[in-house]
Structure formats: C-alpha cells, structure tokens
C-alpha cells in the first residue's frame, strides 16, 4: 500500500493506493496517529487508488474517526472504488462515515 499526504484547506488529505488489509493497516494507523500527535484533526481519505479493504482496515478508520471527533475534528472519505464500497455497505460503514464522490467535493465540507 502507498500512502501520500497533502495539506488542503483545513484538512490533511491522505491518498491511499493498493490494499488496506491486516498486513498494511498498521502503516495507515501509524501515519494517522503521528499526524494527530502533531495537532491535525481533520482528515480526508481518498480511496480512488484502493483495490481492497479488510476488517483490519475498517478498524483503523473507525479508530481515526473516534480520535478525530474527540479532538473536535472529523474524518471524511472520498472516491470509494466499487470493491471498497461493497465492503463498506456490507459492514454498515456507509452509515458511519460521510462519503463524497470526489476529494474536491469533500474538501468543501471542512
């Protein structure tokens, strides 16, 4: 999995590519926790390059959303691929997260 980050408006844009599963979820968790320690609290995760997400990946997203909300921020998601959206639907995560079609649309929400 490849993780790229950029500061946009009042949020940190995290662009993910590849697979977010048990072997890669620790990378994302470490990255998000590190950013939160520096005071970041608003995150946009762009899934346009994601092929797959497992329950381990969903757990990291849930952790990030809870910690961000506690800090007064939020986690938004954008550009879910069909495979990833199907996992979100099955797990009931489409009702937990605010999901946008594009990163540009989501950035307007911060």
Walkthrough of the structure:
The longest helix has 16 residues. The protein has a single domain, classed as STAS domain (Transcription Regulator spoIIAA, 2-Layer Sandwich). Strands 1-2-3-4-5 form a 5-stranded mixed beta sheet. Helix content is 40%, strand content 34%. The relative contact order is 0.19. The chain has 110 residues and is an alpha/beta fold.
Short description:
This protein has 110 residues and is an alpha/beta fold.
What attributes characterize this protein structure?
alpha/beta, Transcription Regulator spoIIAA, 5-stranded mixed sheet, 5 strands
Tell me the layout of helices and strands.
Blueprint: E1 2-8, E2 11-20, H1 25-37, E3 42-53, H2 55-70, E4 74-78, H3 82-91, E5 98-100, H4 103-107
Parallel strand pairs: 2-3, 3-4, 4-5
Antiparallel strand pairs: 1-2
Structural class: alpha/beta
Text of the CATH class: Alpha Beta
CATH topology: Transcription Regulator spoIIAA
Instruction: Please name the fourth-level CATH homologous superfamily.
Output: STAS domain
Residues in helices, as a percent range: 40-55%
Query: How many β-strand stretches?
Result: 5
- What's the overall geometry? globular
Work out the radius of gyration.
12 Å
Strand order of the largest sheet: 1-2-3-4-5
End-to-end CA span = 26 Å
User: Total domains, how many?
Assistant: 1
Largest sheet: 5 strands, mixed
Summarize model confidence as the mean pLDDT: 96
Low-pLDDT parts are: none
* Tally of separate helices: 4
Query: Beta fraction of the residues?
Result: 25-35%
CATH architecture designation = 2-Layer Sandwich
Topology as H/E string? EEHEHEHEH
């Amino acid at each position: 999995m490849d993780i790229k980050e950029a500061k946009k408006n009042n949020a940190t844009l995290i662009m993910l590519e590849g697979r977010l599963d048990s072997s890669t979820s620790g990378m994302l968790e470490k990255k998000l926790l590190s950013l939160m320690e520096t005071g970041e609290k608003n995150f946009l995760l762009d899934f346009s390059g994601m092929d797959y997400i497992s329950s381990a990946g969903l757990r990291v997203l849930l952790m990030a959303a809870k910690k961000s909300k506690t800090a007064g921020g939020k986690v938004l998601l954008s550009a879910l691929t069909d495979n990833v959206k199907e996992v979100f639907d099955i797990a009931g995560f489409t009702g937990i997260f605010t999901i946008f079609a594009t990163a540009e649309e989501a950035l307007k929400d911060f």
